Amino acid sequence: MNTAGTVFLQAEAQGSGTFSNVVANGLGAGGIYNCAFPANTPSFTVNRGSGNSGWQNSTLPGCTFPSQGGGGGGGGTSTTTTRPPPPPNGNLAQGRPVTASSSTQNLVPANAVDGNTSSYWESANSSFPQTFTVDLGSTQSVRRLVLDLPPASAWNTRTQTLSILDSANGSSFATIVNSTGYTFNPASGNTVTITLPANTSTRFIRLNFTANTGWPAAQLSELQAFSS
């Protein structure tokens, strides 16, 4: 491998691999970019065999992926940009940073992007509106959202009224879907799918809750975002 521009190996998954007799020249940043995904899971295990050269002793720290630089002595410059790792099953929101206007006890915002529909976020009681915001890490094309509540039979049917906003910078938000009542029915999995405008390209997505017929708080088990 000659003048790759960034790294020899980009690993953003669990698992392992053995590499032998691999020679890499003119890398623009370093040998290995190894960022565990989803968060708080084991990173990819790199088994270094014999005959390797130019990459095996260099692992980039953290999860900031380098842009293509002037590797191979080309005299270019290199900058870094932060971007999310490849999403599991196409869900752009899973494992991403989230914030909310409030939460109750251990029902924290991160519960709604952990890939587990049995955990959920709940806002403070008897206080609307409430917001839930996810940072996709970089600008993404988002076509639909899937909202979930826990599927347990103890959760009665409820309608939550909410609007959807987006932002490029996390501070200035604009409404892209007007306030609507969405019914979550445990008989059909407590799932609601919302189609976004076809040209939606954004980094931050915010749900603005104004009512809930089943409980005096905003509730969300999973926020899933898809580009298709």
Describe what this molecule looks like in 3D.
The chain is mainly beta and 228 residues long. It has no helices and 17 strands. The strands form 6 sheets. The protein has a 5-stranded antiparallel β-sheet with strand order 8-10-15-12-13, with no helix packed on it. A hairpin with a 6-residue loop joins strand 12 and strand 13. 29% of the residues are buried.
Which key features would you list for this structure?
single chain; 228 residues; mainly beta; Jelly Rolls; 2 domains; five-stranded antiparallel beta sheet; three-stranded parallel beta sheet; 17 strands; elongated
Write the layout of secondary structure elements.
Layout: E1 7-11, E2 16-19, E3 30-34, E4 45-48, E5 59-60, E6 65-66, E7 80-81, E8 98-100, E9 121-122, E10 130-141, E11 144-148, E12 158-167, E13 174-184, E14 191-195, E15 201-212, E16 219-220, E17 222-226
Parallel strand pairs: 1-3, 2-4, 3-5
Antiparallel strand pairs: 6-7, 8-10, 9-16, 10-15, 11-14, 11-17, 12-13, 12-15
Quick structural gist:
The protein has 228 residues and is mainly β. Helices cover 0% and strands 40% of the residues. It has two domains: 1-83, no CATH class; 88-226, Sandwich (Jelly Rolls), CATH 2.60.120.
Supply the helix-strand structural class: mainly beta
Task: Let me know the average pLDDT.
Answer: 82
**Care to count the β-strands?**
17
Number of domains: 2
CATH class category label of the largest domain? Mainly Beta
Widest sheet: strand ordering: 8-10-15-12-13
Quaternary structure? single chain
Radius of gyration: 21 Å
